[in-house]
């Protein structure tokens, strides 16, 4: 059997375009190696700070992300994702720039979830509701007719200080409490929520907590990545 070479890395893996951050990454976070039970390869986009992506929108970063995505593809990535849901803004351009599947954000799941829950209301929990625009949603393929409730965490003190402020240390027990508080607020204000989509890739560590409070399915980038990996690395059944 002839096997072709030409690159230093082999096997099925997902490439992750990372923001250049300092805040701690805990298990469940896209930037923690224990989060995935399959191979991933991280590539830091040095110019992409939290401020330029999650606090405000700097579209001039697109060429940097395209270059990094193309490098991951050359290194053998079978699919590419990112470490920030706000990068849905670059979804069409990144998908066209490479030949492998690109899923920049869990926001891409919203149309699917919408159909799954029969058109009922979906809650989106985001790191910063002030920066989640109609254009982000449009680039993710979200039709304006889909009923959404947007819940931001920018007003939660510790989350904002650590994640949006990119602090090198943080009280993650306090952040857990703030996420629970946000979920309780959603439950009180919108008891008819049928599902939740977590925009922020730092929120999957709290997905089970959110599900326990709201009692509905919770979708995030880790769920998405597992689905994509199972599509690119199929196993034999017979």
Total strands: 8
Tally of separate helices = 9
- Structural class estimated from helices and strands: alpha/beta
The CATH class of the largest domain, by name, is Alpha Beta
Sheet with the most strands?
Answer: 4 strands, parallel
Domain count, please report it: 2
Helical residue percent band: 25-40%
Mean pLDDT: 96
Q: Give the overall shape, derived from the CA principal axes.
A: globular
CATH topology of the largest domain: Rossmann fold
Unreliably modeled segments: none
Strand percentage, roughly? Answer: 5-15%
Task: Give the termini separation.
Answer: 22 Å
What's the alpha carbon Rg, rounded to whole Å?
18 Å
How are the SSEs ordered, and which strands pair?
Layout: E1 14-19, E2 40-45, H1 50-55, H2 62-75, E3 79-82, H3 91-97, E4 102-103, H4 110-116, E5 122-126, H5 134-139, E6 148-152, H6 157-164, H7 172-189, E7 195-198, H8 207-214, E8 218-219, H9 221-232
Parallel strand pairs: 1-2, 1-3, 3-4, 5-6, 5-7, 7-8
Helix pairs in contact: 7-8
Q: How would you characterize the overall build of this protein?
A:
- Helix 3 links the parallel strand 3 (79-82) and strand 4.
- 36% of the residues lie in helices and 14% in strands.
- It contains 9 helices and 8 strands.
- The strands form 2 sheets. A 4-stranded parallel sheet has the order 2-1-3-4, with helices on both faces.
- The chain is globular.
- It has 238 residues and is of the alpha/beta class.
- It has helices at residues 50-55, 62-75, 91-97, 110-116, 134-139, 157-164, 172-189, 207-214, 221-232; strands at residues 14-19, 40-45, 79-82, 102-103, 122-126, 148-152, 195-198, 218-219.
- The protein has 2 domains: 14-105 and 224-232, Rossmann fold, CATH 3.40.50.1860; 106-220, Rossmann fold (3-Layer(aba) Sandwich), CATH 3.40.50.1860.
- Helix 7 runs parallel beside helix 8 (207-214).
- The relative contact order is 0.17.
């Amino acid at each position: 059997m002839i096997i072709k070479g030409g690159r230093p890395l082999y096997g099925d893996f997902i490439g992750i375009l990372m923001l250049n951050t300092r805040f701690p990454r805990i298990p469940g976070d896209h930037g923690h190696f224990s989060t995935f039970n399959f191979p991933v390869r991280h590539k830091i986009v040095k110019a992409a700070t939290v401020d330029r992506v999650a606090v405000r929108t700097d579209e001039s970063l697109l060429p940097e992300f395209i270059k990094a995505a193309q490098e991951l593809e050359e290194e053998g990535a079978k699919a590419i994702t990112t470490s920030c849901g706000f990068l849905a803004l670059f979804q069409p351009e990144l998908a066209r720039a490479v030949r492998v599947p690109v899923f920049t954000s869990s926001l891409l799941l919203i149309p699917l979830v919408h159909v799954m829950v029969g058109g009922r209301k979906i809650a989106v929990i985001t790191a910063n509701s002030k920066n989640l625009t109609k254009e982000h949603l449009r680039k993710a393929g979200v039709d304006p007719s889909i009923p959404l409730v947007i819940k931001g965490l920018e007003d939660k003190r510790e989350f904002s200080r650590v994640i949006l402020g990119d602090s090198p240390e943080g009280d993650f027990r306090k952040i857990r409490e703030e996420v629970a508080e946000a979920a309780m607020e959603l439950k009180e204000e919108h008891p008819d929520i049928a599902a939740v989509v977590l925009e922020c890739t730092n929120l999957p560590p709290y997905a089970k907590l959110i599900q326990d409070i709201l009692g509905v399915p919770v979708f995030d980038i880790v769920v998405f990545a597992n689905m994509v990996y199972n599509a690119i690395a199929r196993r034999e059944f017979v």
